[in-house]
């Protein structure tokens, strides 16, 4: 490594799933902009982060698990990857570590490094996390716990700051990148996929984790069969991500109506614009659909063993992000035994048939953009400037 390269700030970024990959890639792109390209990256990420110049330590698909009992079978590999990541960070000695989402993995890495620091180890760089644990939805005590071992937290929702500032953690609201998501070209996508301009289109989004897809697609598939019996001209679009794309294609190939599987960020937004209604797994994509003004029913299932624990710990009214932010049920939510083809079919048919649904969703989208944005500076750039400040990287000097 040349002396010039060695002196270029190194930002180590860890993202363990598709939503984190998207957020981290936007931040990386903004960091390159504010530093005039005088920045280096290392860490763990997916396709979008690789496109911004990251060589991932290992595939993030290995980390895409959630729930108590879903994690247990993966625990040995998870622990090995945590150990490997910590060792790589210590060897590279970055100017800052930024972990993004994927709390089961990321916060364990952060905690190990904090313990090394407390023991006098070589951890002089700031420990920063982006995307707060959903303490407002379940286990609020986690705010106190993570405040002990992080130096800074970047949150996406304005109501999150007080939960962590109460415990002395420096917390910055950076805004949600989805608030600036583009409007897609639905007409163009319909033309390319031979969907008639006036044909009704249902978007089906079964999640980004293999377990989600495995549990939800059978229920979603039966719902599609019932809806096509009611709406014979119905067409199906299935936006997905690379980590589960083959699994999704294999499952939907026998659905009626020839489901069209779509990959890529640009095509996802085109699909949003082409949809009349969506059926989606609970997660970040439901907020993206709300911001796109798509009437959406949300379904979710966890393993039967995790469900009783979740019911005791989770505030179910806060699970669907748009509903939590706006304080009203913008998107109907069906969990576990309530996530059935019968219930989903009735809900989606109501969204198709209610002429007010799209107008109501358009109004909600405008409210959400105002609440989640940060004005003239984009959320990704706000995050990049916050990271640069925490690392002592001066954009004015390096740009």
Automatic annotation (TrEMBL):
GO cellular component: membrane
Pathways involved: Bacterial outer membrane biogenesis; LPS lipid A biosynthesis
EC number: 2.4.1.182
First-tier enzyme category under EC: transferase
A GO molecular-function annotation: lipid-A-disaccharide synthase activity
Reaction catalyzed: a lipid X + a UDP-2-N,3-O-bis[(3R)-3-hydroxyacyl]-alpha-D-glucosamine = a lipid A disaccharide + UDP + H(+)
One Gene Ontology biological process: lipid A biosynthetic process
Pfam families: LpxB
Keywords: Glycosyltransferase, Lipid A biosynthesis, Lipid biosynthesis, Lipid metabolism, Transferase
Transmembrane segments: none
PANTHER family in the record: LIPID-A-DISACCHARIDE SYNTHASE, LIPID-A-DISACCHARIDE SYNTHASE, MITOCHONDRIAL-RELATED
Protein's job: Condensation of UDP-2,3-diacylglucosamine and 2,3-diacylglucosamine-1-phosphate to form lipid A disaccharide, a precursor of lipid A, a phosphorylated glycolipid that anchors the lipopolysaccharide to the outer membrane of the cell.
UniProt record similarity statement: Belongs to the LpxB family.
Record protein name field: Lipid-A-disaccharide synthase
